[in-house]
Amino acid sequence: MIKKLLLLMAIMMSASSLSAQSYSELWKQAEAAAKKDLPKTQMEVLEKIVKKAKKEKAYGHLLKAQLGHANLQMKIAPDSLKPVMERLEQQTAEAEKKDPALGAVMDAVMASAYKDNSELGEDSGEKSQAYFKKVFSNVSLLANTPANRFKPLVEEGADSKIFNDDLLSLLGLHAAGYGYSEAYRLMHDYYDQQGNRLAAMYTANEMGQDVDSLIARYQDLSECGYLAERKLSSLTGAEKQIEYANYALKTWPNYRNANHFLNIIQHLTLPSYHAYVERCLSIPSQTCKVKFHDLRNIQWLTMRISNADTKREVNTQTHHYTGKKAYEIHTDSMTIPALPLGNYKIDFKTNESKIESETIDYHVSNIAVISENIPNDATRYVVVNATTGKPIPGAKMSFRIRERHDKPLKTVTVTANAKGECEWKNENYVISYYAYTAEDHYMPKNNSGWGRYTYYEPRSNQNVVNIYTDRSLYRPGQTVHASVLAFNNKKGIEVKAIPNMNFTLSLRDANGKVVSEESLTTDSYGSASADFQLPSSV
Question: What is the pLDDT of residues 165-188, one digit of tens each?
Answer without folding.
Answer: 899 998 998 899 888 989 999 999
